[in-house]
Design brief:
Layout lengths: L3 H12 L8 H12 L4 H11 L3 H10 L11 E6 L2 H5 L2 H12 L12 E6 L11 E3 L2 E3 L4 H14 L1
Parallel strand pairs: 1-2
Antiparallel strand pairs: 1-3, 3-4
Helix pairs in contact: 2-3, 3-4
Length: 157
């Protein structure tokens, strides 16, 4: 169950809009931030807050790339696989990350730190190949740059 303080904060935000459904994604993100993913309990809580059915929330959640219905690592790495990234070395970045982390697409490292996912275009084409980690963009990726990023994230964990 989400904390009462979070519930009240979300209710307050919802009261200030004409159509509560317009805040569905924001509410799902807030609940996901609390649980680590949008759990079944979180779906029901969002539905209750927004006066929607759990099915409607689940349908929205499965549509959005950054809403996670399954547990994920502390750091979620979305590697861009758009055509521009493909042309500029996506495949080598992807293979390097899989080897370095010891996971395949959709998997989380055994220490629970990293989940590796593909995403179609992050809008960082001028700095491709690129990736997002917890919604922060990194571009012009090389093996050395990836090593530095992962090292810093491990230190911060």
């Amino acid at each position: 169950m989400i904390p009462e303080e979070l519930r009240q904060s979300l209710k307050k935000n919802i009261e200030h809009v004409e159509h509560p459904r317009e805040l569905a994604v924001d509410v799902m993100f807030a609940i996901q931030d609390f649980y680590g993913s949008l759990t079944d309990e979180g779906v029901h809580e969002a539905a209750e807050l927004l006066d929607m059915s759990p099915l409607e929330i689940d349908q929205l959640a499965t549509f959005y790339t950054f809403i996670y219905r399954e547990p994920v690592g502390k750091y979620v790495i979305h590697v861009c696989d758009s055509v521009v990234c493909w042309m500029n070395g996506y495949e080598s970045v992807w293979q390097y990350l899989c080897r370095k982390l010891g996971v395949q697409p959709g998997e989380t490292t055994s220490d629970g730190l990293f989940t590796l996912l593909k995403v179609c275009c992050i809008g960082y084409c001028d700095r491709s190949p690129a990736m997002l980690i917890n919604r922060k963009a990194y571009g012009n990726l090389t093996a050395e740059k990836i090593d530095d990023i992962l090292k810093k994230l491990r230190q911060d964990a």
